[in-house]
Amino acid sequence: MKEMYARLGVSEEIYRCGEEVLQSLKERFAAMDAVAEYNQGKVLAAMQKNRVAANCFAATTGYGYDDVGRDNLERVYSDTFHTEAALVRPQITCGTHALTVALSANLLPGDELLSPVGAPYDTLEEVIGIRDSVCSLKEYGVSYRQADLTADGSIDYAAIRACVNEKTKMATIQRSKGYATRPTFSVKQIGELIAFLKELKPDIICMVDNCYGEFVETIEPSDVGADLVVGSLIKNPGGGLAPIGGYICGKKQYVERCAYRLSAPGLGQEVGANLGLMPSFYQGFFLAPTVVASALKGAVFAANLYERLGFRVIPNSTESRHDIIQAVELGSREAMVAFCKGIQMAAPVDSYVDPLPWAMPGYEDEVIMAAGAFVQGSSIELSADGPIRPPYAVYFQGGLTWYHAKLGILLSLQKLYDAGLATL
Ligand SMILES: *Cc1c(COP(=O)(O)O)cnc(C)c1O
């Protein structure tokens, strides 16, 4: 084994360091496998209930009327997430798009959007109009308020109470930390927050940005009162196989509006050809629970390895997990670049290229991204990225297999070690 790792670029001392850390993780890995086993059952039961069959995999083109595979996949998602309705489409180009559709479909001029969990994900700033942007919700007369988290990253209920007013129509609750160093919220915490919001204002629409959270726990935000849950298919639920797409699951009245916003008023969910993508959507969803467990193992391994070497890691080595993201604070631009080089070097695709920081659309700061992925930008595949700004944290995620995640983490450390930026 050592020889194999040497061939892949991992020195003996780095390999040994990794093995020592792994010794302590057996129980945690077993717990993750148990969650995957449960979620595998959930997905399978939904596929069996909806009688998934070969005719679901046929390609449709043009308008896509009577698309059996597409409509049935949406029922499979509904049943898995325990919602009334679902919109699962390749026409949803990414997570930001799915969130934009959900927000703009359900907010009208004069309405206010509330984020009760502090600043939203970077790309949402332009969607909402926190940073001025053409076609933002702000431009269409939708206002925005934000209740910041407390200094320790917990939900500030008093601040939320002060924000809710007669205009508050919808709340956007981001489960994952995104590019922040706050904690990710558990599904249980999200449920408590939703209950609080509904008590303040019973008709408030609670949308959860579920990106990176799917299948990490045995329940989802839709099990604890969320009216809409939204995510990307090139993250967890696509299982690494979906080459594009997003989903919106939730109450029928809100999902229907999303369908009209995505296509056109009057057309809604009836149009949207599947273009031959159904096999990868179904099979990816089937694989998603075990893929998520692999990614989670990578995250926990990285936390334990880097914490041991003296880096601040979020979540820390022992915390329970609510998404697949692992942040490691590296303290400098050079260390971020070295870490990302190691991840890139581990990739099956583009392993020979060097990642560099660039001004990526939608982000205010320069961003560095390491991703040698089969699907461009897919972050359920082994990837690391982060905005070049203090505290110079890289956000590490993914790994379609645990072994690949392990190699990537070992190589990231190898690069830091070789550059003199980490000591064992
Ligand atoms: C990835 C992500 C998004 C946006 O998804 P894209 O597919 O990159 O547009 C939104 N919110 C969170 C929390 C995310 O992690």
What does this structure look like?
The structure is a single chain. By secondary structure, the protein is of the alpha/beta class. It has two domains: 2-40 and 287-418, Aspartate Aminotransferase, domain 1 (Alpha-Beta Complex), CATH 3.90.1150.60; 58-285, Type I PLP-dependent aspartate aminotransferase-like (Major domain) (Aspartate Aminotransferase, domain 2). 40% of the residues lie in helices and 13% in strands. It has twelve helices and twelve strands. It has helices at residues 2-8, 12-23, 26-49, 68-81, 95-106, 122-128, 157-163, 187-200, 252-262, 278-308, 333-345, 402-418, and strands at residues 85-89, 112-115, 143-146, 168-174, 205-209, 228-232, 246-250, 312-314, 326-329, 367-371, 383-387, 393-397. A seven-stranded mixed sheet has the order 1-7-6-5-4-2-3, sandwiched between helices. Strand 2 (112-115), helix 6 (122-128) and strand 3 (143-146) form a beta-alpha-beta unit. Helix 2 (12-23) packs across helix 10. Bound molecules: pyridoxal-5'-phosphate. Residues 94-96, 121, 123, 174, 176, 178, 209, 211-212, 232 line the site of pyridoxal-5'-phosphate.
